[in-house]
Amino acid sequence: MTNDYNVIIAGGGRVGFQTAEILVDRGHDVTVIERDERTIDELADEWMVTVIRGDATDPGILEQAGIDRADVVAGLTGETGVNLAVCLAASELVPGVRTVARIERDVGDAYTRFVDAVLFPERAGARVAANEIVGSDVQTLSDVTGTLDILLVRVAEGAPAAGKKLSEVRFPDGTLVVSDDDGNRVARPETTLTPGRQYVVAVEPDVVEEVMNLMRG
User: What does this protein do (predicted)?
Assistant: First the structure.
């Protein structure tokens, strides 16, 4: 069983880079499409990720990025029109693929007829962008805790930790399960990680993937 997503991000600037970095930390497979050669060089210097140079509105470039295997396509460039065009091209190539578009200003639900979710990162932050890309099974609850992630994680059926008490699960150092499954009390050693229920977890970035493997499979 796996809950990893194959994500294509159009735009390797600040928002795209930070969002991709968070998704990789959570164990997802990310490909970035970027037009600007300088930005591509910066991505190569800073971080190991699959980067494709080209225009993400071009179906040929999307196919080169593996659109046929993608679960989500996110247009995160600084141009609303480009982001919507990327999402529409992706939907045409792979009907049913989840699409997420960054917009330049908060206009409510004006664009949701065209894409599955819209982002206004200037208010939301990259962690919220990552939430929208992979849906609601893993959500970041705070964007003001430095590098520490405060996550709301739904335990997956068949995951290694599913059905076990906290005292029975060997979480890595740097992990703290905060809430019980009803969210009304602090988790205790006897708290059971029930499949389908959500738990608040504080986790350091270098162990996020290991925690996700335990709780999501």
Answer: Part of a potassium transport system.
**Residues 193, 166: contact at Cβ < 8 Å?**
yes
What is the rounded CA–CA span in Å between residue 212 and residue 217? 7
CB 216 within 8 A of CB 156: yes
State phi, psi for 55 to the nearest 5 degrees: -95, 115
- Let me know: does 72 contact 7? Beta carbons within 8 Å: yes
Please give the Cα distance from 187 to 176 (Å, whole number).
9
CA-to-CA distance for 21 and 160, rounded, in angstroms?
A: 25
Each residue of 33-89: pLDDT tens digit? 999 988 888 887 776 678 999 999 999 999 999 999 999 999 999 888 999 999 999
Cβ within 8 Å of residue 166, ≥6 positions away: 177, 187, 188, 189, 190, 191, 192, 193
Of 196, 177, 194, nearest to 185 (Cα)?
A: 177
Cβ neighbors of 9 (< 8 A, separation 6 or more) are: 16, 19, 20, 30, 31, 32, 33, 74, 76
Q: How far is CA 120 from CA 17, 66, 80, 105, 172, in A?
A: 16, 26, 10, 6, 34
DSSP letter (8 states) at residue 169: S
Backbone φ and ψ for 149, nearest 5 degrees, come out as: -95, 130
Query: What's the helix, strand, coil split of the chain in %, to 5?
Result: 35, 25, 45
At which residue do the structure tokens 């040929």 appear? 60
